[in-house]
Amino acid sequence: MTFAAPVWLLLFLPLIYLWRRRDGVAVLIRMSQSSRMWQGNTWRARTRPYLQLLRWGALGLLVLAMARPQRKWQEEKITADALDIVLAMDISPSMLSKDFDPDRLSVAKKVAVNFVERRPHDRIGLVAFSAEAFTQCPLTSDQKVIQSFIRELTVGRLEDGTAIGMGLATAINRLKDSPSRSKIVILLTDGENNVGYISPIQAAEIALSLGVRVYTVGIGTEGIVLSPAQRNPNGTYVFAPRRMVFDTELLEQIADLTKAKFYRAYSERDLEGIYAEIDRLEKTKVEITSVQRTKDYYEWFVACAICLLLVEVLGKWTVLRTLTP
What we know:
By secondary structure, this protein is α/β, with parallel strands linked by helices. The chain has 2 domains: 2-73 and 295-317; 83-283, von Willebrand factor, type A domain (Rossmann fold, 3-Layer(aba) Sandwich). It contains 10 helices and 11 strands. It has helices at residues 12-20, 43-47, 51-66, 104-117, 143-151, 164-175, 200-209, 248-257, 268-281, 298-317, and strands spanning 2-3, 69-81, 84-90, 123-129, 133-140, 183-189, 212-219, 224-231, 237-243, 262-265, 285-296. The strands form 3 sheets. A 6-stranded mixed β-sheet has the order 5-4-3-6-7-10, sandwiched between helices. Helix 7 links the parallel strand 6 and strand 7. The longest helix has 20 residues, at 298-317.
């Protein structure tokens, strides 16, 4: 145990001086009580002189609190589930389709944020893609940071199109130097690959060679969907009923090739269930050393001081109440 601000301990010098110079026993007027009018030295009379000790004890505890007692280099070893995960999310205009409330991308972001919340010990990264792909956030163990980047995903930052191969390759690139024993990509899209100079199968073969499993998630309902049909000069979209094309076979091939699974999400509940299943499947036990550089204990001293003062006040104004001349 050490003190972060030991200079405050010098206050004990005046406290000790005042303690030694404190007044003697106060002159009291004993008030009669019908039940104890003629009794001699009662327990109240014997207890009353000790009330001031509570006050001095509280002052001493407050001085210790100001000196900030703390313990340094407290280590804790725990066994936890930890791996490296990259979320590769489609941000092409079709992700604004209205078969989800309010749209596919909003629901995908919400579910992804909740998934991150359940993985406190993982390093998680984020890749966004449409006609091109870019790393929105590299691997990090800071949940708040990755959740913030997920919430900031928007449509229109890249050219229109769906480059599944480019998105997957970019995600794999974030994992190629990872020392983790378990590395996965969760690829979410609502369309078919129609652009990009790296094919999805080529990217999947690279993932296999690096030991990366790719879980593919297809989001969207079947049939005619209210979807962006035209982009206005100001960046907004004109919506119209469209028949969406979805390449289920391609996503199944990617998942099978990398020894993972393909999922289809027709609703928000489906998507939540998919992420929950991936969460259950991907568990790798590792020993993590949690190091807390300093831990303060001043609040305990403050709490004890407050309790002593309360006891003194309650005693002084209730059962041990006195009248002084």
